[in-house]
Amino acid sequence: MGGALEGVKVLDLTRVLAGPYCTMILADLGADVIKVEGPAGSDETRSWGPPFQNGVSAYYLCANRNKRSLTVNLKTEEGREIIRTLAKDADVLIHNFKTGSMEKWLLDYDTLQKMNPRLVYCSITGFGETGPFRHLPGYDYIIQGMSGLMSITGSEESGPIKIGVAMVDILTGLYSAISIEAALFEREKSGQGQKIDMALMDTAVSSLANVASNYLISGKVPQRLGNDHPNIVPYSLFKALDGEMIIAVGNNRQFTTLCEVVGNKELAEDEKFSTNEARVKNRAELTRILENLLHAKTVNEWLELFSEKNIPCGPIHSMDQVFEHPQILAREMVVGVDHPEAGPVNLVGSPIKLSRTKVNIERHPPIAGEHNNEILQQAGFSEEEITRLKENKII
User: Fold this and answer.
1) Is 91 a catalytic residue?
2) What is the dihedral of CA 125, 128, 133, 135, to 10 degrees?
3) Predicted pLDDT at 156
4) What angle do CA 18, 150, 180 make, to 5 degrees?
5) Nearest Cα to 108, choosing from 117, 98, 96, 121?
6) Cis before 50 (ω within 30)
7) Do the strands 56-57 and 52-53 form a parallel or antiparallel pair, or are they unpaired?
8) Structure pTM?
9) Could you give the CA distance from residue 206 to residue 180 in angstroms, rounded to a whole number?
10) Rounded to an integer, what distance in angstroms lies between the CA atom of residue 395 and that of residue 248?
11) Residue 56 — left, alpha, or beta (φ > 0 → left; ψ -120 to 50 → alpha)?
């Protein structure tokens, strides 16, 4: 059986991470994704490294599997006409050019929708296509700062810290995939496509979740709490005898059990700690008490004891520990593919587990222009036309 999105054709005019991550999700689900770049490959991540494997960037490999590659020079009218031709029978077009670029090239939604009323058209920009910042470019790091994410990440001692991966790009990719799938579903009823206006800034602000709600309700500007939780205590990183571990106590019953296991059951009866509200107010004092008690045993000893009593806890894994973990291996979160240039490569597997329309890795992340002939022939171009396009550096 094919993937859940088998039969869906996607023109992917994105590069770097947010857009390619979105289209990789669609491709993993069975969509035919055509990755469009400039001649020789214009996705900047192809050169982002080290590490490289036989000259192929690890960064590029992370977000481009299961796609076909077409190279087109969008600076030429003939190149843009190729996109219009492909868009006539596409289901989805997605791009992440700056606001106004696609209008200038007559590749905007209003133009393409007249050729293909069923087209779902997704734009990913830094700040969206409305508002005073709509013309500014968007970068994950800058958006993390502007959105408030960095103001709550880190500690007072460290100052603002960005998240360790480009999480705004990843979240925008996920929101974009959800939006595209929703538009395709709605199209089954209306027969009409529509435009999706995605912004990194909007996505980042939406991801503030409970912290944003705390501010909107209380009016108090949240401070950096390091590894602490703003609403729950103890819910943080704690030091044991030989390292660090996470304890995530979410209710009074768990806290009472925690106090019993660490050897101070009276702590749960102290009015300063008997309720979560009280524990939040007395966070620093409780943390000092718990860490003194936790220094009596190793991380593994505590993890075993806490797990026996159903106290939420966990270790801090390094990358080698993550990808050697039996749970990760059992869930097929590491997949191997053969790449014609890089050779055998390991990629992170898909977290989407569907019972019938399973996710499969059918294609390696493509070489730039690898499928030019195949894609253009399917679109009705003759071999002579394709040869001329190559000679004129249109593809």
Assistant:
1) no
2) 50
3) 87
4) 25
5) 121
6) yes
7) antiparallel
8) 0.93
9) 18
10) 54
11) beta
Q: Could you list the mean pLDDT of each consecutive 10-residue stretch along the chain, which spans 395 residues?
A: 94 98 98 96 96 97 98 96 97 96 97 98 97 95 97 92 96 98 98 98 97 96 90 95 95 96 94 95 95 95 96 96 96 96 97 95 96 96 95 94
CA distance linking residue 238 with residue 288, whole number of Å: 10
Every domain of the chain and the residues it spans: 9-207+356-391, 235-316
Look-up of token digits 């007395």: 282
Amino acid at 371: H
Superfamily of chain region 9-207+356-391: Crotonobetainyl-coa:carnitine coa-transferase; domain 1 (3.40.50.10540)
In terms of phi and psi (left: phi > 0; alpha: psi -120 to 50; beta: otherwise), the region of 98 is: beta
Which listed residue (169, 197, 242, 320) is catalytic?
Answer: 169
By DSSP bridging, strand 9-13 and strand 92-95 are parallel
Asked if domains 9-207+356-391 and 235-316 share a fold, the reply is: no
235-316 domain in CATH 3.10.180.10?
no
